[in-house]
Recover the amino acids of this structure.
Protein backbone atom coordinates (compact mmCIF):
# COMPACT_ATOMS: atom_id res chain seq x y z
CA UNK A 1 0.00 0.00 0.00
CA UNK A 2 2.86 2.38 0.74
CA UNK A 3 4.09 2.09 -2.85
CA UNK A 4 0.60 2.89 -4.13
CA UNK A 5 0.25 5.93 -1.89
CA UNK A 6 3.69 7.15 -2.97
CA UNK A 7 2.72 6.77 -6.65
CA UNK A 8 -0.51 8.71 -6.08
CA UNK A 9 1.33 11.51 -4.30
CA UNK A 10 3.99 11.64 -7.01
CA UNK A 11 1.46 11.95 -9.85
CA UNK A 12 -0.60 14.63 -8.16
CA UNK A 13 2.47 16.45 -6.88
CA UNK A 14 4.03 16.62 -10.34
CA UNK A 15 0.81 17.94 -11.85
CA UNK A 16 0.47 20.50 -9.05
CA UNK A 17 3.93 21.92 -9.71
CA UNK A 18 3.13 22.20 -13.42
CA UNK A 19 -0.33 23.68 -12.83
CA UNK A 20 0.97 26.54 -10.69
CA UNK A 21 2.35 28.30 -13.76
CA UNK A 22 -0.36 27.41 -16.29
CA UNK A 23 -3.56 29.35 -16.93
CA UNK A 24 -6.61 27.09 -17.28
CA UNK A 25 -5.44 24.78 -14.50
CA UNK A 26 -7.58 23.92 -11.49
CA UNK A 27 -7.51 21.62 -8.48
CA UNK A 28 -10.19 19.91 -6.44
CA UNK A 29 -10.46 18.15 -3.09
CA UNK A 30 -13.30 16.16 -1.61
CA UNK A 31 -14.58 13.72 0.98
CA UNK A 32 -17.54 11.36 1.06
CA UNK A 33 -19.22 9.15 3.63
CA UNK A 34 -19.53 6.37 1.03
CA UNK A 35 -17.70 6.31 -2.32
CA UNK A 36 -20.33 5.13 -4.82
CA UNK A 37 -19.67 4.80 -8.56
CA UNK A 38 -22.37 3.71 -10.99
CA UNK A 39 -24.44 2.46 -8.08
CA UNK A 40 -21.68 0.29 -6.59
CA UNK A 41 -19.65 0.89 -3.43
CA UNK A 42 -15.96 1.37 -4.18
CA UNK A 43 -14.60 1.53 -0.61
CA UNK A 44 -16.63 -1.30 0.98
CA UNK A 45 -19.08 1.16 2.52
CA UNK A 46 -16.46 3.32 4.19
CA UNK A 47 -15.64 6.99 3.67
CA UNK A 48 -13.07 8.25 1.19
CA UNK A 49 -10.94 11.31 0.53
CA UNK A 50 -10.05 12.54 -2.95
CA UNK A 51 -8.00 15.14 -4.79
CA UNK A 52 -7.48 16.02 -8.43
CA UNK A 53 -5.89 18.36 -10.93
CA UNK A 54 -7.22 19.47 -14.30
CA UNK A 55 -6.08 21.55 -17.23
CA UNK A 56 -8.43 22.82 -19.93
CA UNK A 57 -7.21 24.73 -22.97
CA UNK A 58 -9.21 27.45 -24.72
CA UNK A 59 -9.79 25.17 -27.71
CA UNK A 60 -11.60 22.55 -25.58
CA UNK A 61 -8.80 20.02 -25.06
CA UNK A 62 -8.37 18.86 -21.46
CA UNK A 63 -6.29 16.47 -19.35
CA UNK A 64 -6.45 15.58 -15.69
CA UNK A 65 -5.72 13.20 -12.86
CA UNK A 66 -7.84 12.28 -9.85
CA UNK A 67 -7.07 10.07 -6.85
CA UNK A 68 -9.21 8.64 -4.07
CA UNK A 69 -8.55 6.57 -0.99
CA UNK A 70 -10.16 3.14 -0.80
CA UNK A 71 -10.60 0.80 2.13
CA UNK A 72 -7.74 -1.41 0.92
CA UNK A 73 -5.64 0.92 -1.19
CA UNK A 74 -6.24 3.77 -3.57
CA UNK A 75 -7.55 4.62 -7.02
CA UNK A 76 -5.84 6.90 -9.53
CA UNK A 77 -7.65 8.03 -12.68
CA UNK A 78 -5.87 9.66 -15.60
CA UNK A 79 -7.96 11.10 -18.43
CA UNK A 80 -8.03 13.41 -21.41
CA UNK A 81 -10.42 14.53 -24.08
CA UNK A 82 -12.15 17.31 -25.95
CA UNK A 83 -15.25 19.16 -24.74
CA UNK A 84 -17.19 22.03 -26.28
CA UNK A 85 -20.47 23.90 -25.95
CA UNK A 86 -22.02 25.20 -29.16
CA UNK A 87 -23.86 28.50 -29.58
CA UNK A 88 -27.22 26.69 -29.60
CA UNK A 89 -26.55 25.29 -26.11
CA UNK A 90 -25.61 21.76 -27.17
CA UNK A 91 -22.49 20.45 -25.43
CA UNK A 92 -20.39 17.38 -26.17
CA UNK A 93 -17.43 15.62 -24.61
CA UNK A 94 -15.31 12.78 -26.02
CA UNK A 95 -12.29 11.26 -24.33
CA UNK A 96 -10.56 8.34 -22.68
CA UNK A 97 -9.87 7.44 -19.05
CA UNK A 98 -7.62 4.93 -17.30
CA UNK A 99 -8.60 3.62 -13.85
CA UNK A 100 -5.53 2.44 -11.91
CA UNK A 101 -5.44 0.59 -8.55
CA UNK A 102 -1.75 0.60 -7.52
CA UNK A 103 -2.16 -1.56 -4.39
CA UNK A 104 -4.55 -4.14 -5.84
CA UNK A 105 -5.72 -5.34 -9.26
CA UNK A 106 -8.54 -4.46 -11.62
CA UNK A 107 -7.04 -1.68 -13.77
CA UNK A 108 -9.16 -0.86 -16.80
CA UNK A 109 -9.60 1.79 -19.47
CA UNK A 110 -12.62 3.29 -21.19
CA UNK A 111 -13.41 5.59 -24.08
CA UNK A 112 -16.48 7.77 -23.62
CA UNK A 113 -18.82 10.21 -25.28
CA UNK A 114 -21.30 12.64 -23.71
CA UNK A 115 -23.97 14.87 -25.21
CA UNK A 116 -25.88 17.53 -23.27
CA UNK A 117 -28.62 20.09 -23.80
CA UNK A 118 -30.55 22.25 -21.29
CA UNK A 119 -29.70 20.10 -18.27
CA UNK A 120 -30.10 16.74 -20.00
CA UNK A 121 -26.95 14.67 -20.52
CA UNK A 122 -26.53 11.29 -22.19
CA UNK A 123 -23.31 9.29 -22.05
CA UNK A 124 -21.83 6.04 -23.36
CA UNK A 125 -18.69 4.45 -21.87
CA UNK A 126 -16.95 1.50 -23.57
CA UNK A 127 -14.31 -0.68 -21.90
CA UNK A 128 -11.27 -1.11 -24.15
CA UNK A 129 -8.93 -2.87 -21.73
CA UNK A 130 -9.12 -4.49 -18.29
CA UNK A 131 -5.99 -6.01 -16.76
CA UNK A 132 -5.13 -7.56 -20.12
CA UNK A 133 -8.19 -9.82 -20.07
CA UNK A 134 -9.80 -9.68 -23.51
CA UNK A 135 -13.02 -11.25 -22.14
CA UNK A 136 -13.66 -8.03 -20.18
CA UNK A 137 -13.25 -5.77 -23.19
CA UNK A 138 -16.52 -4.60 -24.65
CA UNK A 139 -18.43 -3.77 -21.44
CA UNK A 140 -20.76 -0.84 -22.14
CA UNK A 141 -22.28 1.65 -19.71
CA UNK A 142 -25.19 3.83 -20.86
CA UNK A 143 -26.60 6.68 -18.77
CA UNK A 144 -29.12 9.49 -19.02
CA UNK A 145 -29.36 12.28 -16.47
CA UNK A 146 -30.94 15.62 -15.76
CA UNK A 147 -29.79 18.42 -13.46
CA UNK A 148 -31.17 21.84 -12.61
CA UNK A 149 -30.86 24.80 -10.29
CA UNK A 150 -33.05 25.76 -7.33
CA UNK A 151 -33.24 28.95 -5.20
CA UNK A 152 -30.75 29.61 -2.38
CA UNK A 153 -27.83 27.98 -4.24
CA UNK A 154 -29.43 24.55 -4.27
CA UNK A 155 -29.35 22.22 -7.27
CA UNK A 156 -30.66 18.75 -7.99
CA UNK A 157 -29.86 15.81 -10.21
CA UNK A 158 -31.37 12.53 -11.37
CA UNK A 159 -29.57 9.83 -13.33
CA UNK A 160 -30.24 6.32 -14.55
CA UNK A 161 -27.54 4.06 -15.94
CA UNK A 162 -27.26 0.57 -17.37
CA UNK A 163 -24.09 -1.56 -17.24
CA UNK A 164 -24.04 -4.26 -19.94
CA UNK A 165 -21.24 -6.77 -19.37
CA UNK A 166 -19.77 -8.76 -22.22
CA UNK A 167 -18.61 -11.76 -20.16
CA UNK A 168 -21.04 -14.66 -20.21
CA UNK A 169 -22.86 -15.32 -16.94
CA UNK A 170 -22.36 -11.77 -15.64
CA UNK A 171 -25.52 -10.01 -14.48
CA UNK A 172 -26.19 -6.66 -16.14
CA UNK A 173 -26.93 -3.89 -13.65
CA UNK A 174 -29.14 -0.80 -13.66
CA UNK A 175 -28.50 2.08 -11.25
CA UNK A 176 -30.59 5.10 -10.33
CA UNK A 177 -29.28 8.13 -8.44
CA UNK A 178 -31.12 11.11 -6.96
CA UNK A 179 -29.10 13.97 -5.51
CA UNK A 180 -29.38 17.44 -4.01
CA UNK A 181 -26.47 19.87 -3.68
CA UNK A 182 -26.05 23.00 -1.57
CA UNK A 183 -23.28 25.34 -2.74
CA UNK A 184 -21.39 27.84 -0.62
CA UNK A 185 -19.04 30.48 -2.02
CA UNK A 186 -16.11 29.66 0.27
CA UNK A 187 -17.05 26.36 1.89
CA UNK A 188 -17.57 24.36 -1.31
CA UNK A 189 -20.44 22.06 -2.29
CA UNK A 190 -22.31 19.56 -0.09
CA UNK A 191 -24.18 16.78 -1.87
CA UNK A 192 -26.76 14.37 -0.47
CA UNK A 193 -27.40 11.32 -2.69
CA UNK A 194 -29.45 8.14 -2.82
CA UNK A 195 -28.29 5.31 -5.10
CA UNK A 196 -30.25 2.19 -5.98
CA UNK A 197 -28.77 -0.75 -7.89
CA UNK A 198 -31.06 -3.35 -9.45
CA UNK A 199 -29.81 -6.81 -10.34
CA UNK A 200 -27.56 -7.05 -7.27
CA UNK A 201 -30.17 -7.50 -4.53
CA UNK A 202 -28.86 -4.55 -2.50
CA UNK A 203 -30.71 -1.97 -0.42
CA UNK A 204 -30.49 1.71 -1.48
CA UNK A 205 -27.23 3.44 -0.57
CA UNK A 206 -27.00 6.87 1.04
CA UNK A 207 -24.05 9.24 0.97
CA UNK A 208 -23.05 12.74 2.02
CA UNK A 209 -20.18 14.30 0.07
CA UNK A 210 -18.23 17.54 0.09
CA UNK A 211 -16.10 19.02 -2.67
CA UNK A 212 -14.29 22.23 -3.45
CA UNK A 213 -12.40 23.38 -6.53
CA UNK A 214 -9.67 25.99 -6.92
CA UNK A 215 -8.59 27.89 -10.04
CA UNK A 216 -4.93 28.77 -10.46
Amino acid sequence: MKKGILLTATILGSLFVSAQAVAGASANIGATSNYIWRGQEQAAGSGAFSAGLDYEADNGLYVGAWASSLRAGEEVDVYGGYAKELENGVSYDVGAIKYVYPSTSGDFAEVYGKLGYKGVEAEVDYTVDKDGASTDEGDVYYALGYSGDLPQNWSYGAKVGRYNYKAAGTTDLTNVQLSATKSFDKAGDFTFAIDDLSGAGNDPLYSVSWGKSFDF
Summary: The radius of gyration is 18 Å. Residues 2-215 form a domain with the Porin fold (CATH 2.40.160.40).
